[in-house]
Amino acid sequence: MQPPSPPPDAPAQAVSAPASPPPPPQVVPAPLLVVPTLRVGWKRDWRLGRSLVGPGTLAVQQGRLRLTGRRTGPVRGLLVQALRLGAVGGFVGGSAAVMLTSIGMTWRTKAPEWLAWALPGFLGVLVLVLLVLWLARRILEPWVTLELPWDQVLALHSDGWRLELRFAAKGSTWHGRMRPRRYSGESRALLVALRAGTPPSGGTPVGAPAGGWPKPRPRVVDQAVVLAGLGGLAGAGWLAWPTIAPRLVSEPGGPALGVPARASAAEVEGMARSCPRGPEGAPVVRNRRQGADLAWTVEGEAAGFAVVPARWVPGGEVARLPAQGEVAPGALADHRAVGLTLVVPQARRDEVAAALDRGDLEGALCGGQVARLDLATAPAAPGPALALARDGSTLVAKVEEPEGRWRLLVARQRDTGRLPWLDLCELPVDQGRLVLPRVEGALRLPGFFEGSRDQARAVLVRARDADEVRRRLGDRAAVPCAQVDALAWTGLATAVVETGPGTSALREEVADRVRAAAAVQPGDDHDAIVNGVHRASKQARAAVSGRAAGRRLGRAELQAIDEGILDGLPWGAILDGLSVQHDLPQVERIRQRLSGDDPLGTLGELFLLRLAEELLERAEPTREQYEARVDVAEAWLDVAAGTTWEAHGRTVRVPSAEVAAYYQVVGHYLLVDVARRVEDQMGRDLAFRITGLGLRGRLAGHGINLDIEKSSAQKALEAWVTGDFEYLGDRTVARLQEQVVDQSGAIEAASSARYGLRGQWSAQDGAARTAALLRDGEEIGWVALYDAAKVRVGYHQVGGQGTSRQALGRGGTALLAAAGSYVTAEGKTAGLSAVDGHVENFLISNKMEGLVIVDGQGRLTMLDMREGGLLPGHDSPVQPLERLADLHLLLRWLEEHDASAFQTHLLGSGGALAIDEAKASGELRERRLLVQAAYQGHPIVAVVDLPGTPKVSLFEAAVIVIQGLRAPPEQGGPGLDVVAIANLDVGSYNALESWSDDGRTLRQSWKPLGETMNLVSVARR
């Protein structure tokens, strides 16, 4: 401040007096911005970066701006909004859980007071949801208090009602948009002044811009950037989903598109072609070795054709070779390699070359482009002549001038490829070592030609080369036949000797003749189709039979001729020219003519079955066409003995019930195809479960019971509603165990453990025995063993009725009853099932490959329906899941033998595991298995119960059964040979009861027999 001035009348001082120094200048502070303390509500505006939200305060204390609120941002805000939506869903779901729990407990305890606990339960759920929401928001949007000097304020603006603020704090930029919770005079004055750009103090705070703070960046810019970022993430996810989805989502297993799962029509026709096959007029090519080089000579007119050379290691790789003229240098440097030259049309050279480059030898040779080929092999080793002959089912090998230095390698050939080289050859391997017997005159191998394997290959090997042969073949039980042939091609053995051409070659020859003779074209009338099919089959049969003049064709050869005729028929033209629903008279005419010419009398019936297979392969119905496909099936099901049609001036009549049975099985076959498709789609489409109820009813009316697989959530919901909380607890624990248990280690431990039995009860005559199953001294299950000659096995569809011991014994003394097959949600047996010769469910499930069969005498058989198995009394394997003809044979056999049957998972067959560890379910649970075994050749029936201490996977259960039953008597085991293993139901119908002869209960599960749908029983004869 300046000193006061003297009064005007004061006397003047002397001039000589020194003047006083001027005082130092004083700084006048800028006026502070007057900001009243405000209680504000911070608004969410989805800007980038940090911001404040929720109720808070705004105040100036000691020259600093003090802010309080909740810290948030775009990500935190999205999480909070999602949490609020989840809270609503949690309350609704929790309320439903409370209601279902009350219903379940009321159902279980029959006490209605449980319903009164629903209201407190709802309140508890509401409080819990609100508490979780509050805690989560405190974590996601925590309280924060900020004190700012004015120089950190970057923007301050108001529209007269709200205040917008942008500031720097804690190393980053913040923003806030607030509204006073109560407007006062001071707050209104501040907001109005800021909107006008004139702070109420009339000055500018220290650190503030001279011209006032700028307006904050428009919110729409930040919001547009946020939306663009979300859109970018969504787009990236959309592009990445095709790659990620296959790893996250697995499709239902098993074929779902046809009955049975077969190759496409084009592949089937291609496999029926003879091979190699190409255009006529091609030149001949001859190979030769020139040291390590492959050389060839072309004889004849080569115009329009090209030679493609390749190097082939039989059983291994194939590679196309570069050519220098008519030589491929160094092609045969590998002593195992064979030179191969193909003559193909010039225009198709690239196709064959591409197949060879892919390593697809069969595709290159059998694609229809190769006209000629030749092999370059080493000179045949000198040695005695070898001859093979058949003597019934015995193979006889004769060697001229036998010498002790020669060994015989004989292989059983199975037709698996279109070239003999590509077939599978089974080798004699004993204890892991290839058997090469010494040749001494004639060698007889009894039983060599049993079953459908009807060809043999043999080579003579020098004794000194035996180890090299074993090294090449790897002491394996089966190899491609090319590896056997290659022993001769590369000089290790004499030339390959085979039995006469097998039935597969005869079948292909007949198919070629039929294909050449069939003049049926699309658009032909019905008579032309009927006559063309008959004429082609008759000419082919006559041509092939003429070659066998003076020799009677065997049954296998006649069957091969029939199959060849069916292979060669022009199915496309037949299906285009005949309606499988409205032209059944013409179909019957073809059947009658074909069977009339067939010595076996069944070709016409096989034609009906093949017609259905071809229809399913060539015309897959859409969902809209399911009803029409059912109409077609019903037309076939309506055919009976004596059914008569009047068509095109002819009277056509079905002659017998046996013929009508073929129409019936085709009708059911078509229904099964529709049912599998419907079952698959209903499993994936919940809406179709409702809209398809009418279709489902039509199928049920024909004995087709769908098994719509329930999800884990559905099963859990049903268990909750019915109060089955033990099931929920068990399944939850099992799921947790599956995540932590080392399955491979568990299976290895099961394989190496020491097993034994601890006796419980034995019948005096040795007909039955029950015992505890021990693993390393600890009890893990229970075993029941029965002499198959003294007991009879039964299968009963009971539905809760007829479950007394007397009813199950059927005149004998019942010793055991247990739940048998799986059951659908409607209480029907899942999969193919029959009771006493009458089929209860025609739907053959492709999810279960095993069929448990009990004939009218109570004898047990287990059939592998996919890989093939033998029915009692038959010597040829049947594959009902793969061939309609085999399905017809199976259904007829069940009817003729008053047999019962049901589908299930087959864990063992033919004395070996039939379950793939890599594909088997890893679900841990209790298990029960039905076992077909033998003791020193005597048949035994066994039931093994593994109640879940510990829970095991299906594969581990199979290992336990095999190891436990094979355990020798000196270790306390039964010493059985396990023939086959089938899985029994231990789900919702987990029932088991075992008795002694005097009626004492030996073992009983928690589920009563009266609550089951079907039972497997064992009773004395």
C-alpha-based Rg, rounded: 43 Å
Main β-sheet description: 8 strands, antiparallel
Structural class: alpha+beta
Q: How large is the share of residues in beta strands?
A: 15-25%
What percentage of residues falls in helices of 4 or more residues?
A: 25-40%
**Tally of separate helices:** 25
Overall outline: globular
Number of strands: 44
The order of strands across the largest sheet is: 27-28-29-40-39-41-37-38
User: Uncertain runs with pLDDT below 50, 5 residues or more?
Assistant: 1-6, 8-17, 27-32, 249-274
Mean pLDDT: 81
Q: Give the CA-CA distance, first to last residue.
A: 129 Å
Short characterization:
With 1021 residues, this protein is an alpha+beta fold. The protein contains 25 helices and 44 strands.
Q: How would you describe this protein?
A:
There is one protein chain. The protein has 25 helices and 44 strands. By secondary structure, it is of the alpha+beta class.
Entry keywords:
1021 residues; alpha+beta; eight-stranded antiparallel sheet; 44 strands; globular; disordered N terminus
